[in-house]
């Protein structure tokens, strides 16, 4: 608990993860978490919990031994690392651990760039939506040098995550697993969307379908179904999505480009990407990754909005 831990990125996932980490550090008598974000106001719950804010990423890096990031895309990570690498801060011995979904090439590049300055990079994307992050039950897919993995493990297991999948030393592997996992998640949402539209058009009913999904396939797929039936695929503007459609499209672009480069295809992902892109064009960016359901409804002659969605009762 003598390590000085930092956190950058306080979106819907990052804030819950950072709060759990700060509570753990406090309970163990460790140094308080230091945090930063593009909008520091989002860190007020962390400050209330005893964490300490830093004005920018460079200040965070300078004052910490281990720096976690949870950011929106590859470009943001590259920008942050360029700031750290271009500063006069000594990075020797520091560990950078990114929990975002980024391209394997970005992970490899980050590891190489940091190694030149004596720092270590761990690629550790997580599986689970924001409620799972808040509950500290995420799955971490971790790759990097073994000594660094051992160092950060106590800050993750039973703190922010329920399990760790050790992907070895090659940081590309954890990014590949995360992208492959997202292929499955997006495909589940696409198939469930099609099934729900089928149920509506045939008068079968969504409630009975959802009950069957839960009984047959378990609570995870039932929760995915509920994102459709509850209207969460198109939430109120002041509520925001659980997993933004824009981020899901970014992840699908990564998957499709890797598949093409590897000589394979992802037909279901292609359909989901096209439908989700059209949903964003139609309804804006306040959409969940399940919003391909709205497009599937339109293709079947229904309104984009179901009765529980943002405009369903208008």
UniProtKB/TrEMBL annotation:
Q: What Pfam family is a match for this entry?
A: NAD_binding_2
Indicate yes or no for the key word Nucleus.
no
Q: Which residues form the 3-hydroxyisobutyrate dehydrogenase-like NAD-binding domain?
A: 176-293
An annotated Gene Ontology molecular function: NADP binding
Q: Which residues form the active site?
A: 178
**Which key words are in the record?**
NAD, Oxidoreductase
Which InterPro entries does UniProt cross-reference here? 6-PGluconate_DH-like_C_sf, 6PGD_dom2, 6PGDH_NADP-bd, HIBADH-like_NADP-bd, HIBADH-related, HIBADH-related_NP60_sf, NAD(P)-bd_dom_sf
Domain 6-phosphogluconate dehydrogenase NADP-binding per the UniProt entry, residue ranges: 4-168
- Family note: Belongs to the HIBADH-related family. NP60 subfamily.
Protein name per Swiss-Prot or TrEMBL: 6-phosphogluconate dehydrogenase family protein
